[in-house]
Every structure is written in structure tokens, then in C-alpha cells.
Write a structure and sequence with these properties.
It is a single chain. By secondary structure, the chain is α+β, with helices and mostly antiparallel strands. It has a single domain, classed as 3-Layer(aba) Sandwich (Aminopeptidase). Helix content is 26%, strand content 39%. It contains three helices and seven strands, in the order E-E-E-H-H-E-E-E-H-E. It has a seven-stranded mixed sheet. A hairpin with a 6-residue loop joins strand 2 and strand 3. The longest helix has 15 residues. Keywords: Acyltransferase, Transferase. This is N-acetyltransferase domain-containing protein. It comes from marine sediment metagenome. Pfam families: Acetyltransf_1.
């Protein structure tokens, strides 16, 4: 199994995770927040890998409303090869009469040729940390 080494770097409150191949010590992937210019490539990954397709405005809405919860993985050539997006909604608490923030995983996809390298695991881990920082208490 090809295990990768991860290094998380924070600059100007933006977190990026660089993923290295321990054999060659070369950077293989970069995990970072999605930006508007990434959406077309995210759509390509989605349409190629998943049965459900969303229109451009849906991705833009997630990006506009939950930017911390929309991450991409790009390969060393800068191509988007995976993404994850969540939304945070108000929902009734099962323990009280209050409404709480509830995170919902909208979509996650990894291009087939990049699977089994730990990318989805890192996307999940990084995005769940970001969600917790937005004071969201429950995830589904």
C-alpha cells in the first residue's frame, strides 16, 4: 500500500494540507478551500464519478454560504482530482427544544485514478475540523 505523508500549513488563516509521497519526498497533492474558479473542474469530477449532477449555481451557493466546508484536492499539475462539500443547517435538537447547527455531507468524490491514496480521508478530516470551527455540533 502506498502511504502518503501529510503536512498541514496555515497562513493568513487559510489552511492547506500538502500530501507527500514518502518514497520520493515529492508533493503529490494539495488540499485547500475551493474557490470560484475551481467549480468547473469540480463539476467535471462530479459528472465523471457520481450518478447525481448538480447545476453550477448549486456549487456556487455552497461555496458562497459555507466556504470553510468546501474543499478540493489538486494534483501536482494543479488539476482538481477530488472534492468534498458540506452545508450547515438549523435543525431541531433531539435533546431539547432548541435549534442547533447540523452539518450535512452534500457530496464527496475522488477521480477513479486517484483513489486508494487517502485523499478522501484527508478531505473528510480537514472538512470536519473546519465544520467544528463554525460551531456546528452535529454531522450527518
Amino acid at each position: 500500500k502506498n502511504s502518503l505523508t501529510t503536512i498541514t500549513m496555515t497562513a493568513n488563516k487559510e489552511t492547506e494540507t500538502k500530501i507527500f509521497n514518502p518514497t520520493t519526498n515529492e508533493q503529490e497533492f494539495l488540499i485547500r478551500k475551493c474557490i470560484l474558479d475551481d467549480i468547473d473542474e469540480v463539476i467535471e469530477v462530479n459528472e465523471r464519478e457520481l450518478p447525481e449532477d448538480y447545476p453550477f449555481f448549486f456549487y456556487k451557493s455552497i461555496l458562497d454560504n459555507f466556504p470553510e466546508c468546501f474543499l478540493v484536492a489538486q494534483n501536482k499539475l494543479g488539476k482538481i482530482v477530488a472534492y468534498i462539500m458540506w452545508r450547515v443547517e438549523k435543525a431541531p435538537s433531539i435533546n431539547s427544544l432548541k435549534y442547533i447547527n447540523k452539518a450535512h455531507l452534500v457530496s464527496i468524490a475522488v477521480s477513479e485514478s486517484y483513489r486508494r491514496r487517502g485523499i478522501a480521508t484527508i478531505l473528510l478530516s480537514n472538512s470536519m475540523k473546519a465544520i467544528k470551527n463554525t460551531k456546528s455540533m452535529n454531522m450527518s
